[in-house]
Design brief:
36% of the residues lie in helices and 14% in strands. The termini are far apart. It is elongated. The protein is of the alpha/beta class.
């Protein structure tokens, strides 16, 4: 990307969270003059002091170099050739896209935009949102998209924990409704991605949604199979192993808690405009039911009332400190409905006390041994990479406990088993 002479910086990232910060740091690493804007002073202070505000492998040295500076005032965007918007786009309670953060960015950004600017929307959005942004920008600025301003939707498709690698290895979709905008966005993201693929904005929006929804539905099928297998007294892990063994036409995914800020909400961005029941809504219902399934089916084996229960993992997925839209708090609430004597939670990726969602009580984060010692039941809620080793210790720390291990981290290949099965004689 060759910066026009009237701009003093190449790119401004608005929203330096788990999507925007890795992008900004990677652009700096690629040789661009990039800076950030964020409304959260804690995030600004951490980054500007050379610290990552969250875990994302591969970026500690880059942020410590302090070449990527985050500002609080969007006026700095006036000096940047490109502006990339990476703020949150949650789903409201009634299957409705929440565009308040995007609207706030546009309101703050509009006075500083001028002819020649490129605006890239990177947040996951419902179909036609980029066209809404175009109309809103034109009203706020008096500039015409495709003539004065360039506008593109350039979705991120990285997985948390793999941003440094995937920003450099995944193809970048460039969604633009005019050639000028497409050229400008391709010039920017071509500095990172090994390949750029051009399309219109709606198709680009659907690409991101389809990628995530396909995974969500796949995991829902796996979770449905786990429920069916246990209902019939069968072992899902054995059935899955046999079904997948050297069979060429499909592979059944592993079951587990399926959540997170993308997979759990993206189905709604399409269903917002669809009044009919469909496969995506059924997948949502199945994945949301898994915590209840685990508690109910454990109670078919033992009563949790008055018992001591340990829950291993609290984030939304393996090896992350991100608890947004995690299903583990829901699992804990269902356990608590059984009126146990105590519930102890342990997640080595998180601080003590655990991050609390709005309306949630503050919860202790115990170390592993303190959480499981003497427990009557242990739920392996998330498949953190350290758990196959740690869970083996249950045979000594809580040998009589029932273990709920949908992820199969204990390698026992059963969803429900007694902890003494993890002893040396059964090690695999």
């Amino acid at each position: 990307m060759k910066r026009a002479p009237e701009f003093t910086h190449d790119v401004c990232i608005i929203g330096t969270g788990r999507v925007g910060l890795p992008l900004g740091l990677s652009l700096v690493d690629a040789g661009l003059d990039a800076l950030g804007v964020d409304v959260d002073p804690a995030i600004r202070d951490a980054i500007n002091a050379g610290r990552m505000p969250f875990a994302e492998p591969g970026y500690d040295a880059l942020v410590n170099a302090r070449r990527f500076v985050v500002h609080g005032d969007p006026a700095i965007a006036a000096d940047c050739a490109a502006v990339v918007i990476t703020v949150g786009t949650p789903l409201r309670n009634h299957i409705e896209s929440d565009l308040r953060q995007i609207d706030a960015v546009l309101d703050g950004l509009a006075p500083h935009l001028r002819a020649g600017h490129l605006v890239c929307l990177r947040s996951t959005v419902a179909p036609r949102t980029t066209r809404y942004v175009a109309r809103r920008l034109q009203r706020l600025t008096g500039l015409t998209v495709g003539e004065d301003l360039s506008l593109a939707f350039c979705p991120e498709r990285i997985a948390e924990g793999r941003a440094r690698i995937e920003l450099r290895t995944l193809p970048q979709i460039i969604g633009a409704d005019d050639e000028t905008s497409g050229d400008a966005a391709e010039a920017l993201f071509g500095r990172l991605a090994p390949e750029t693929l051009r399309t219109d904005t709606v198709s680009a929006e659907l690409v991101k949604l389809f990628n995530n929804i396909a995974r969500y539905v796949e995991f829902a099928v796996a979770n449905q199979f786990a429920l069916v297998a246990d209902t019939f007294g069968a072992n899902i892990h054995e059935v899955r192993r046999l079904a997948n063994h050297r069979y060429p036409r499909n592979g059944i995914a592993a079951p587990g808690l399926t959540a997170g800020t993308c997979l759990r909400k993206d189905f709604g961005m399409i269903n917002e405009w669809n009044p009919h029941p469909d496969l995506m809504l059924a997948a949502w219902k199945m994945n949301e039911y898994v915590p209840a399934f685990l508690v109910q089916h454990l109670e078919q084996r033992m009563a949790l009332e008055g018992r001591r229960v340990a829950v291993l993992g609290y984030s939304f997925k393996r090896d992350t400190d991100d608890v947004r839209d995690s299903l583990v708090p829901k699992l804990v609430r269902y356990i608590e409905r059984c009126v146990p004597a105590e519930v102890r939670i342990s997640d080595h990726n998180l601080p003590d006390p655990l991050p609390a969602a709005e309306g949630e009580p503050a919860r202790r984060n115990h170390d592993f041994a303190a959480a499981v010692r003497g427990a009557d039941a242990v739920f392996v809620a998330i498949d953190h990479s350290i758990y196959p080793t740690l869970v083996r210790k249950l045979a000594a720390l809580a040998p009589d406990a029932w273990v709920v291990d949908l992820w199969n981290v204990g390698r026992i290949e059963q969803t429900f088993y007694r902890a003494h099965a993890l002893g040396p004689a059964n090690a695999r």
